[in-house]
């Protein structure tokens, strides 16, 4: 019986592995034409002021409307886009579309607040990133001060110096840089000190159950204090409950983001959200 079970569970395992490889190939094939076929769209999530809950920033997040499989989340396809190199053009499309949308909202009288865009680490392993971003700002007419680029610590794994050079060029132009998912990588805040960044976004794993764990809450407190002492703003991502909101408000986080305030919304719904808020 044991032998039989062993065989069948092995079969089960290989089946699943095969399925996931097939799924990968299926998605990767679809990705190749997705930009050209206009299958991507953007959603927007507010970053809010802790005390008032008013929107002080916007993060744009990509979605893929797959013709057969429906809406696919970036966690599923961004890694594939990175290994295949398609990420470079996808990110530039997102950047252009987000800047265009931000400028449009400004022109139509919505509050002037920064638009955050995620950039893959892969963007920094090529030349021309700075010029591409400058061109997009010129073409869309968005002032650089309203653009915030979110990068993860993995950007700094190799070739630290060229990356710092590019970030410095971007910063000198007026663009803000945030470290996203802080706490999930290997680096410490003191290592961030030499980087031209202005915001640290605490990963959701720091936020979850923070009040149940004394260890976690003291780490979080220390990180926020240290970041502030370095002149960095701190954003807590993934705020889902009122308790979490209160906790991070007490710790003097500069901005909060999460489903508690709003899920990411398509442009027209995000407009409604802003209209109701500012009425
Ligand atoms: P991220 O940049 O850290 O974005 C935050 C993620 O957390 C988003 O997932 C957002 O929908 C989700 N989130 C926000 N509030 C909450 C909350 O209260 N609870 C929970 N459980 N989740 C929350 P999303 O949109 O699925 O994006 C996942 C990741 O994909 C992003 O993480 C980012 O790393 C990447 N990504 C998204 N758009 C782009 C893009 O245009 N370019 C690149 N390179 N990466 C992108
Ligand atoms: Mg982000
Ligand atoms: Mg994040
Ligand atoms: Mg993330």
TrEMBL record:
UniProt keyword Repressor, yes or no: no
MF-aspect GO terms: cyclic-guanylate-specific phosphodiesterase activity
User: Mind telling me what this protein is named?
Assistant: Diguanylate cyclase
Which residue range or ranges hold the EAL domain?
24-278
- List UniProt keywords, sorted A-Z: Membrane, Transmembrane, Transmembrane helix
Q: What is the lineage of its organism?
A: Bacteria, Bacillati, Bacillota, Bacilli, Bacillales
**What stretch of the whole protein does this chain cover?**
595 to 873 of 873
- Domain of life, per the record? Bacteria
